[in-house]
Design brief:
single chain; alpha+beta; globular
Length: 133
Amino acid sequence: MIDYTEQESQAVQQLLNERYKSPVEIHLVDCEVQPDKQRNERVERPAMFWNALDCNFVLIKMADDEFQGFFFYQPDEHFASAQQTYSNAVNCVIAILQSQADQFGESQGYLSGATAADFDLNKFIPCMVRNDD
């Protein structure tokens, strides 16, 4: 039977607590998945579910060394990282957290990977920070 190890659970919990600077409640759930898209067979797999900053995250353990993750704001809109599967839980969580941050930034009008060269700096009003100690 496939299940999360204590080490995987602790590593994911620690990563999320560090990312959000406070404890994150992780729910252990079962997900119905279709591992082989060519076949119509569905199976249950263990998953971790958490909500942070109005976004829902799911980490599914497909096999002993195979993880898939995705996030969503609404049940009908799922987002994932560029890579479909990962060999460990932590790398998968890092990837979906980064994908969510990129997607959120893009939804707010920010360009992923943009640098100063991508902006017309003449449009910015210069300002100074004053320290009146």
